[in-house]
Amino acid sequence: xxxxxxxxxxxxxxxxxxxxxxxxxxxxxxxxxxxxxxxxxxxxxxxxxxxxxxxxxxxxxxxxxxxxxxxxxxxxxxxxxxxxxxxxxxxxxxxxxxxxxxxxxxxxxxxxxxxxxxxxxxxxxxxxxxxxxxxxxxxxxxxxxxxxxxxxxxxxxxxxxxxxxxxxxxxxxxxxxxxxxxxxxxxxxxxxxxxxxxxxxxxx
Length: 204
What we know:
Radius of gyration: 17 Å
Order of helices and strands: HEHHEHEEHEHHH
Mean pLDDT: 89
GO molecular function: hydrolase activity, acting on glycosyl bonds; metal ion binding; pseudouridylate synthase activity
Strand order of the largest sheet: 1-2-5-3-4
Distance between the termini: 34 Å
CATH class: Alpha Beta
Protein name: Pseudouridine-5'-phosphate glycosidase
Number of domains: 1
Keywords: Glycosidase, Hydrolase, Lyase, Manganese, Metal-binding
Organism: Populus trichocarpa
Structural class: alpha/beta
Pfam family, one: Indigoidine_A
Shape: globular
Low-confidence stretches: none
């Protein structure tokens, strides 16, 4: 994100961002993604926060960091593998043009913070929320039993959830990355067109 911002890239696509880990109030295990979003004026397009994390606390932390969190074509923050997390958002964007105007305003105001645009996984690729959550709970217990913490925890949990879901979570992961890239590309084009139109207006 930092280097993207340095070279003038304002739209950054990823699968899902990191966040506050479950039981983060005890471990203080919080991804640096959140801090970086608070100090880097880049719009990150993702399928939300990985559902192995604590989504409500992650959203609270992003608010503390001054990060605008918007959801694409929905009023609910997506949960990576699934469309719904149960967490509402205050900002909804329905088109690439909406996203472009939001990004442009953030840049013109020079707030210095980023924007998270959360794009739900396509319905046909969404995994069962109940299956994912039960698999996460099993994976979390195993991680605790094996004393797997810190940087090693997320890869372990994702691999375990994939194993427990019979590969369904991996298939969903691939699908959401492709969808994020498509949406992100449309937003980048809309932002470029908005800037071009603005520059022409200034020249006249």
